[in-house]
Write a structure and sequence with these properties.
The chain has 74 residues and is an alpha+beta fold. It has a single domain, classed as Histidine kinase-like ATPase, C-terminal domain (Heat Shock Protein 90, 2-Layer Sandwich), CATH 3.30.565. 23% of the residues lie in helices and 18% in strands. It contains two helices and three strands; from the N terminus they run E-H-H-E-E. The longest helix is centred in the middle third of the chain and has 11 residues.
Length: 74
């Protein structure tokens, strides 16, 4: 998944999976959030043996990649 937005520093991207961290100030004030989303995603992905990658493209925004191991049912 990828979104658009301002360019994010590597230091900020490294902190985005910590609880209560948000990337930038809110543009819309009618949306709430406390910065737990990516921390929860990281926890779930790790619990299933996967990896979470956050990439800040040079053009701005953030790309989030989740990789989970393939588990056969047999």
């Amino acid at each position: 998944m990828q979104n658009t937005g301002e360019r994010l520093s590597p230091e900020l991207v490294d902190r985005l999976t910590e609880p209560f961290q948000r990337g930038t100030a809110r543009i819309r004030t009618d949306q709430t959030g406390v910065g737990l989303g990516l921390a929860i995603v990281k926890s779930i992905v790790r619990a299933h043996g996967g990896t979470l990658s956050l990439i800040a493209p040079d053009a701005g925004g953030l790309r989030v990649e989740v990789q989970l191991p393939f588990l056969s049912g047999g």
